[in-house]
Amino acid sequence: MSDGTLEYFRSVGALTGEDACAVSWAHAVNSRSELARALTGHCHMIEADVILRGRDPREPVMAHPPDTDSDVTLSEWLHEVKEHRKGIKLDFKSLEALAPSLALLEPVLSEKARPVWINADILTGPGGRATPIKAESFLSATADLPPHAVLSLGWTTGWTAGAENPGYSWDMVQEMERICRDLQHAVTFPVRAALLGQSLPQLCWLLQQSDRFSLTVWTSTQDQFSLQDLQSYRSRLHVSKIYIDLPDSLRAELMGTAAHSE
User: Fold this and answer.
1) CA distances for 26 relative to 30, 50, 88, 107, angstroms
2) Is 205 helix (H, G, I), strand (E, B) or coil?
3) Pfam families in the record, alphabetically (predicted)?
4) What is the pLDDT of residues 191-218, one digit of tens each?
5) Is 75 in contact with 69 (CB distance < 8 Å)?
């Protein structure tokens, strides 16, 4: 199944064209106030983190570890989002919250066009120290999602200022391709912007293995990277295959650079 994210936003008049860089993001929407801001703002996709509450009642809530609770549950969060034309990306750091969350997602997933991305780091990547979610268990739990759902499957990574930071190796991308080869869903690979300059042949190869594959570029607060590295990918791959989950000013600069180079 191909990724219908861009088609959805075109169909509701939220964007035109085929450039995935035009999709804008709201991050860490893990509270009632952040959710209200995102729903009334201009973003297309709302990203949030899901954990199982650290006390009774043990239910999925919107929070990023080490937080163990939130002022909004996943059920409440989805009820609000359902009334707006926004796509959602839910990030899971452990398996315990996944099954109860997927059950709560069923009414949203029944809307056959709305973008729903389910994200987890399933492999160890460059500089990665965090333990990834077990790939087999995650993919088994998500296998019965509707065809239009998108799996966002990444690597744990690290980056250190002033150090030689390795990129995504051939072994890393080949293992990811092997895992994703026979999946029925569209897959986007979240990749760290600061590591892209060292990874161009590997990641371009990965995307060339299936029409179902795309990249989603992200960054951490302290990371340093060159927009030219990102532009190299946009010149090698179709722009519909590279989502840019970066601040609006950087996305605009990238799109402006592309326009001037045409």
Assistant:
1) 11, 15, 10, 22
2) helix
3) Menorin_N
4) 999 999 999 999 999 999 999 999 999 9
5) no
Please give the Cα distance from 227 to 205 (Å, whole number): 21
Pair of tokens at residue 209: 């293995």
d(CA 60, CA 71): 12
Half-sphere exposure of 184 (CA within 13 A, CB side): 9
Distance set, CA 64 to CA 90, 119, 239 (Å): 11, 13, 31
Least Cα distance to 96 among 125, 130, 58, 48 occurs for: 58
Distance CA 122, CA 48 (A): 18
CB atoms under 10 Å from CB of 165, counted, come to 19
- What is this structure's pTM? 0.95
Burial of 244 (0-12, 13-18, 19+ CB in 10 A): buried
* pLDDT < 70 regions, the chain: 257-262
Domain 5-261 belongs to what topology? TIM Barrel (3.20.20)
60-62/45-52 β-pairing: antiparallel
Instruction: Report the phi/psi class of residue 73: left, alpha or beta, with left for phi > 0 and alpha for psi in -120 to 50.
Output: beta
